[in-house]
UniProtKB/TrEMBL annotation:
GO annotations of cellular component type: endospore-forming forespore
Keywords, ordered alphabetically: Sporulation
Main location: other
Protein name per its UniProtKB record: Spore protein
Location(s) in or outside the cell: Spore core
Upper taxonomic lineage: Bacteria, Bacillati, Bacillota, Bacilli, Bacillales
Similarity field: Belongs to the SspH family.
A single BP term in Gene Ontology: asexual sporulation
Length: 63
C-alpha cells in the first residue's frame, strides 16, 4: 500500500479492511518516516507491531 492511501484510511471515519501477511489488522499510527506504521490484530489489541506500510494490503469486500 502507498503511504498516502494509508493516511486516507487512517483518517477516515469509515471502516476499511486492511491486512498484513494475510491477517486482518488495525492501523494505530503512521510514522513520520513515511515508511512504517504501528498496527495490531483486529482481535488482539495488546500486541502491536511496527511494519512497513508497503506490506499493508487493502482488502476489497465483495457484496
Amino acid at each position: 500500500m502507498e503511504y498516502t492511501r494509508a493516511q486516507e484510511i487512517f483518517a477516515s471515519p469509515k471502516e476499511y479492511e486492511v491486512s498484513y501477511n494475510g491477517v486482518s489488522i488495525w492501523i494505530d499510527k503512521l510514522h513520520e518516516d513515511g515508511k512504517t506504521a504501528t498496527v495490531h490484530l483486529r482481535h488482539a489489541h495488546e500486541e502491536r507491531s511496527e511494519v512497513a506500510v508497503t506490506e499493508l494490503k487493502e482488502e476489497y469486500l465483495t457484496q
